[in-house]
Amino acid sequence: MKSVxxxxxxxKKDTFLTIGFTALEVVMEVLLPFMTAKIIDDGLARSDMPxxxxxxxxxxxxxxxxxxxxxxxxRFAASASSGFACNLxxxxxxRIQDFSFSNIDKFSTAGLVTRLTTxxxxxxxxxxxxxxxxxxxxxxxxxxxxxxxxxxxxLSLIFLAALCFLGIMLALIMRTTTALxxxxxxxxxxxxxxxxxxxxAIRVVKAYVRxxxxxxxxxxxxxxxxRLFVKAEGILAVNNPLMMLTVYACITAVSWLGAHFxxxxxxxxxxxxxxxxxxxSVMMSLMMLSMIFVMVSMSSASIRRxxxxxxxxxxxxxxxxxxxxxxxxxxxxxxxxxxxxRGSGKSALADIDLHIRSGETIGVIGGTGCGKSSLANLxxxxxxxxxxxxxxxxxxxxEYDLExxxxxxxxxxxxxxxxxxxxxxxxRWGNPAASREECIRACRAxxxxxxxxxxxxxxxxxxxxxxxxxxxxxxQRLCIARALxxxxxxxxxxxxxxxxxxxxxxxxxxxxxxxIPGTTKLIIAQRISxxxxxxxxxxxxxxxxxxxxxxxxxxxxxxxxxxxYESQTQGGGDFDQAC
Length: 579
What we know:
Its main location: membrane. The strands form 3 sheets. This protein has a 6-stranded mixed beta sheet with strand order 6-9-10-3-11-12, sandwiched between helices. The chain has helices spanning 2-5, 12-44, 49-98, 101-104, 109-151, 153-200, 202-207, 211-236, 239-264, 269-311, 372-379, 402-408, 423-427, 436-445, 449-452, 472-484, 502-515, 528-531, 551-557, 559-569, and strands at residues 331-338, 349-356, 361-366, 387-392, 395-396, 409-412, 421-422, 462-463, 490-494, 520-524, 536-541, 544-549. It is of the alpha/beta class.
């Protein structure tokens, strides 16, 4: 709760103004029945017209102040709640941007989306209700009860009994529904995941005619959500009948006992009239409090989920005095072990001892799951090694400023992502200051110019979100061009030419020699043809180095590499398949 409320920031003033104006509104409203009783007892009963006019004028003034205070409270409440929600979303989004890959692995994409949308909206609505109704209801309740005791202590005991009864019942209802709403928002994650997966893979769904299966999966997710909501709302629905039962019981009891007091002369007609007004105020306050309990029940689960994101601390940090310059593109792994889950006993990389000179072209090859991508992730410090040291430019990667390191280590990942915007907008992710001519040269080196120039708008062609309007090979070449614009000291291609033909792949590698001759290049690939011209080739097996030498030497000395080569050059197919 503390981490969530800390996001109020500049909207604290609006929050306190809302509370202040709400309190003023309540005071005016509570005094109105008292003035009504004065008119009845001092004016009408005594036929005193000046007293009636005087009390009437005071009531009009009080009503005007109450109206003004209510309007101002509503205005500041809207500002405070909307600003609070805005700050929450911005803080969560900023925290997510600081997450390392290991932090992101703890949350699903759908779960983060739900937290940023549905959960924040729930908290916003609850906050607006709390700063208005949660202030208004208790104040009205307390002041009305005080006036009731001032008028008749005996009749006011009825209200105390009603309050105790409702308090116990609301506590039981809240205890049950809070746990249910936690399950509801977990089911929201499942629902969003189903929608996200279906929309992202809609082409595959249609290609395999799996619409019915996806509909059934979605219906199951919505059905689970429906059942939990019905169960939670069904319990909450008990709240209204309880409230009405209490209200009418109080009115009946006060009417019967109050009539006896009036007849006995211990109460005036004005007092009994104002007492009924205070009864309704007390009961309406109780109803408003019950509404707050409902919102708190729903939002408490959302607050916990938001707090999980805000409390999550990035696992990768800059050192106190970070190194801000990468000397060269040399890479050293000194007996490195790496596991995605510390203490799990399962290593993605084991005892990697590897030394690469600056400017070398290194091929990396191996079967699926052998640790190729894990190796690349450690170089740009997307993860930290579990044991051992990874050095770039002769320095431990943990000594560098993260932005400096990642600007000098350019990675084209397996999953190529383009963003909505023009081709130039996407290219300039690599270098925001790049000129159009620099972008064109990078695209020529990546062999992307040939298809870009065929578009009617050329480099100003709009790219849909995720690159949905370009092919896989075109997307890969645009991502390579984007990486080249950074002019890094180290370039890592993580199986990023798998969707292009072998001739284009060869042209791209040839262009590297002239476009970035001094850059260290790591080419992770499935095809022998993509790595055989490299200075040296690293063969990985089960997270360990099985061989590291030139193409010719590996053919002579390394059985795994020789099997891969023969399976691909003699028509055997993909090397992950049995030969």
